[in-house]
Amino acid sequence: MRGRAPRPFRACPGPTPSLAGAPLPPRYRRTRPSPNRKAPSPMDVGTLAFSALYQFGDAFAFLVLSACGLAVIFGMMGVINLAHGEFIMCGAYVTVSAAHAGLPLPLAILLGALVAALVGALVEIVVIRHLYERPLDTIVATWGLSLIATQGTLILLGSTMAGVGTPFGSFQVGGYSYSLYRVVLFVAALVVLAALYALFNWTRFGVMARATIQVPHMAAALGVDTRRVYTLTFALGAGLAGLAGGLYAPTMTLVPTMGTTFIMEAFVTVVVGGADVFLGTAPAAAVLAVVKATMTSLYGQLFGQIGLLLAVIIVIRVLPRGLSGFLLRERA
Amino acid sequence: MAILETRALNKRFGGLHVTNNVDLALEPGEVHCLIGPNGAGKSTLFRLVLGEHLPSSGQILFDGEDITAFKPFQRIRRGMSVKFQVPGIFKALSVRQNLEIAMQHHYEPAHLVAEIGRLLDFLKLAPDADRLAGNLSHGQKQWLEIGMAVSLKPKLLLLDEPTAGMSPEETHATGEMVQRLNADGMTVLAVEHDMAFVRQVAQKVTVLHLGQVFAQGTVDEIVADERVAAIYLGQVAETAHA
Amino acid sequence: MNATFRFFSRLEGPQTLGRGPLFWLGFLVVLAGACAYPLFSDGYTVGNTVYFFTWVFMALGLSLIWGYGGALSFGQTAFFGIAGYSYGVLTINFGAAYGFTLVALVLAVLFAALFAVLLGYFLYFGRISGVFLGIVTLSVTLVLERFMAQTAGPEWHIGKARLNGFNGMSAMPPLTLPWPGGDLVLFPDVELYYVVLALMVVVYLGLRILVNSPFGNVLVAIRENPERAEMLGYDIRKYQLGAFVIGAMLAGLSGVLYTSWGQYITPSSMGMTAAALPIVWVAVGGRSDLTTTLVGTLVVLSVFQALTIHGSQYALVVMGVLLVLTVLLAPQGLAFAFARLIARPFRSRKTGDV
């Protein structure tokens, strides 16, 4: 049982003589604190606090999950992956297909992440590897990949794909209903952050990766296969994107351009955060989540995004190297 | 009046006190060399003067004006000019264009071509004027950058290890170039490792150690100073152990 | 006299391919061909050619920002959209009489410029590095698109002009020249062709002069080595902002011409796909030269349209492949590589090892 009615989906902007005939992204179905108002009684403080917390958690999870794949790749390799949204789309499509085929949803989500990671490894080997000296060209090339992926999916799978329902239903607090799945997403975001922390600090791969990033030639001299580290790092970023896609797949309409729903938030979080996942992405997501949740609950989703963008533009004027640059500066 | 003066200049990076209460004064027309063992804070002081870092506290005066908060390009416009350690040139552009970019706002358009030609001769780069700057030899790149720095007609020329990576002959030629510029009245502040170069050009030497001014004087006084030798030797001993 | 000569001598210089009598003779031949073209074609085809021409301005602007200035802006379509919508709102409200459409054109382009100044101030004065500049400008574009897409309701109107959400604005008057004996309405036909062609020639030559001027010198210096450029006393932020604003105005000009051409503009003209296309034209053509950008844009657009017959998705996949291959195999652009190849036998010895 869902707490709200699905919105009608309008895919195409009508006849267009323009070159840009691609369907627009769907607006993902929002959880504003409950559309189902049971009683018009005034909210007490506890309810209000829970509602604010819930919205913050929702926004935080969305920002962290959208951004962490992008942030890992940017932080470790200095590459901005403009096909990030398409890796998310890939994860979502695989998840939903697997779920339709009868796989339990959690396994389907992991499968989505895995497939995205494999595609990521392939992309790194075929394209990205040759462009490390030219960061701007990497953006351009990944944008080309994004075009290919979006339009290729449109050709092969059509303009939309039947989704799966949001699991777990809803729960009530103070006469308002909330989606339980959103809480699961928040927990998932925290788990992903913790897992990344463990990965980069406690595993052999993590240590090698950090060594490669800090002093590439030294790492190479010490026998680290730096090319493999880069491939694995890119695959990790792509896999995290796929995971985000899989996790959000049950809450969205599946269309080939669904990646654009995520990338703005992902970009913004990475720009504000800077090059470090833990000192950058996580605190940036927390700060931006407050902005977004506040603006969204006051003026609606679009203004949540506009608020985010304005916050970013102001932040970069003040802190050109992002939050992590600011936090790390004192250590330099 | 000093042309460049730093007053109680401090720079901290986190807990690290890299520039510690440095008072420095350059008289107009002198060639002043800044030396010191690795990690003495020479580069930081250089960057503070240039405006690439802002000091934690203290003042920088240039030609009597407080420039402590100025951006680098504003300092350049007041009459500073700089040559970096790694040749800062426009590699994908021709030698002539490199000079044109440096000089275009300092000369009348009608005279620009002739002035560029004169400078090319001075730098012994005339035969290479239409080559890409990135294809010059290392020494030629260094001279091109000195040429760009000099073409601004600065009151104060800042040189960051101008002879790094040069052969002894090139080092000597660079020294002569600096002496000729100085003879025309230019003040020069150079960070330098190469003592042969320092002996050739310096009229005054400041030794930095652990971020502080350790000693100051003429080349002969500094060379004769046993404490200075000790800190260099200490460095040598440390690196030998390391 | 001398100053005038110097001004026009900048039509050729180190920042532009093509110099000497042979090049300019070729230029005149192509121009004469372009002028004669409508005589041998029908109104519909000519109108379609104008459609190609409208995009060239945006491409040239991007070449200035990216190819010459070294800053990758993905936000060109934002300025395109802002100017296009502005033109629509102005002309729907005030009509086309007394040459007002031309005033609307100028105002719309200025409006795009104003937006570029605001955005550019925060970006360049915040010292945003290359990679971030791209994604922030792209984010701005995407948010603008989403904003315009949700303006379907009747409450979204400016004066008489409804914004119409996804479906976009339509039915604004085309550009209209006041003309003795009755206004000349520039429908997509021969008249519009000559007007846009003339604009294109003026902009192309004007940009050639600009990039070979001291301003252009500093711009390429910033691309090559921003620290050195600053240490020569240039406030590099102002130069970058200047290029950004000029590029935005050219994108705005494209937006106005496009809107006037089809009497139509939609939010999707600012979307992700639309934003990618200028990058494709300019990258494939050869971003670091105006001529290769211009030629490349027209060629890629023709190929694109030829492919669109089989469906625009297929055409876009081909564009994506083209972009990836260009970046991997000919980073300076296909037209640029081709131009170098042609120029080789003609080049004089002393230009040396380019």
UniProtKB/TrEMBL annotation, chain B:
Recite the UniProt keywords alphabetically.
Answer: ATP-binding, Nucleotide-binding, Transport
What Gene Ontology molecular-function terms does this entry list?
A: ATP binding
Q: Which parts of the sequence belong to the ABC transporter domain?
A: 4-235
Superkingdom of origin organism: Bacteria
Q: Which SMART domains match?
A: AAA
InterPro entries listed in its UniProt record: AAA+_ATPase, ABC_AA/LPS_Transport, ABC_transporter-like_ATP-bd, P-loop_NTPase
CDD domains referenced in this protein's UniProt entry, alphabetically: ABC_Mj1267_LivG_branched
Where is the secretion signal located? none
Q: What is this protein called?
A: ABC transporter ATP-binding protein
TrEMBL record, chain C:
Q: Which InterPro entries match?
A: ABC_transp_permease, LivM-like
- Tell where it localizes: Cell membrane
- Name the domain of life this protein comes from: Bacteria
Q: Which UniProt keywords apply?
A: Cell membrane, Membrane, Transmembrane, Transmembrane helix
How does this protein lie in the membrane? Multi-pass membrane protein
Spell out where the chain crosses the membrane: 21-40, 52-71, 78-96, 102-124, 131-149, 192-220, 241-258, 264-283, 290-308, 314-339
Among Pfam families, the record links this protein to: BPD_transp_2 (PF02653)
Instruction: Please verify whether the record's keywords include Electron transport.
Output: no
Query: What name does the UniProt record give this protein?
Result: ABC transporter permease
